[in-house]
Design a protein that fits this description.
single chain, 9 helices, eleven-stranded mixed beta sheet, four-stranded parallel beta sheet, alpha/beta
């Protein structure tokens, strides 16, 4: 029988309890005007990895990062003129903006799936905003349900679907909108709606003019759109059982392969949550032309290992010969 998770009201005591959990890298389900979100510290790699684990999310799709005010957003992304106008009109509200990630932004690379953009939103719900302020950090918060299951719009929905996979639920009643936020990509010359949601197209176009719809060929601003999702600048070889001269090694487990030019270990203890937390940061560090390539030791095809292997396949997609010894 699935254990139950504690549900508390979003009063001062509940918010303080939730903020303590966030500070320790825990997960809290929070109400927003759209749907309930599964929130964790967006700057904490392991907390973000726990979000993917709790949702049994099959791929490391980019997560929406929730902020409490415009100044917090401006520290994470570059707000262009269209973003400023839309934020003036619709923030807080059900609009997510995809914008260029600022250099040095503290958000986990796992939260952005290794992309150079971030999806940012300011929710229109007092409990969500108060928790972000009290936590002092942006919150990564996809919908609080297992991947592929019905989206939750009440605290009871979260408890029934996630059980003891999370640490706390803040009950804010039923969500007023009940569908996810609209996602708008502002990194192209013509803004593009990547997901229909709680803010209609007509409202957006009334502020910034015509927008494009859907995913263009080759775009990588939204999850799962191309085979090569994050390709390093050097050759990547999966399922390596040996290392060739000059290769860097991305290891997994207590026995790294010998002979690498340099080695980073996703998890010496074979902990897939730790491996997921380290994945993008370590891959970026090894993406250096001083090395002839990156050899990656086998990662189990289970749990978060499935998501890690999915991203490795995408990273190796430009060279089909990279996928094993």
């Amino acid at each position: 029988m699935m254990a139950t998770v504690k549900i508390v009201s979003g009063d001062e005591a509940g918010l303080r309890a939730a903020a303590k959990i966030i500070a320790k890298g825990g997960l809290v389900a929070i109400p927003t005007e759209t749907v309930y979100g599964l929130a964790g510290d967006a700057t904490n790699d392991r907390a973000v990895a726990r979000i993917f684990e709790a949702k049994a999310r099959p791929q490391f799709n980019p997560l929406i990062v929730h902020v409490a005010n415009r100044s917090m957003a401006a520290k994470l992304v570059t707000l262009n003129r269209s973003a400023e106008r839309l934020a003036d009109a619709f923030w807080p509200g059900p609009l997510t903006l995809v914008l260029p990630r600022r250099r040095g932004a503290p958000v986990s690379l796992l939260a952005s799936a290794g992309l150079d953009t971030l999806a940012i939103r300011m929710p229109a719900h007092p409990i969500a905003l108060d928790l972000i302020r009290l936590s002092g950090c942006p919150l990564a918060a996809p919908s609080a349900n297992p991947s592929g299951r019905l989206t939750p719009t009440e605290a009871a929905h979260v408890a029934a679907s996630l059980g003891d996979r999370i640490d706390l639920i803040l009950d804010g009643g039923r969500c007023t909108i009940g569908i996810e936020s609209t996602v708008l990509d502002l990194t192209e010359p013509t803004p593009r709606m990547l997901r229909q949601g709680g803010l209609p197209q007509e409202a957006i176009e009334a502020i910034i003019g015509p927008i494009a719809l859907g995913h263009p060929e080759g775009a990588i601003r939204s999850p799962g759109m191309t085979a090569s999702h994050y390709a390093p600048s050097i050759r990547l070889r999966m399922n390596a059982t040996s290392v060739t001269a000059g290769e860097a090694l991305l290891a997994f487990g207590p026995h790294p392969l010998p002979g690498a030019a340099t080695t980073l270990n996703l998890s010496p203890s074979s902990d897939l949550t730790e491996a997921a937390a380290n994945f993008f940061a370590m891959l970026h560090r090894l993406d250096d032309r001083r090395y002839s390539g990156i050899a990656v030791m086998p990662v189990p095809e289970t749990g978060l290992g499935t998501a890690i292997n999915d991203r490795l396949c995408r990273a190796a997609a430009d060279d089909a010969g990279n996928r094993g010894d």
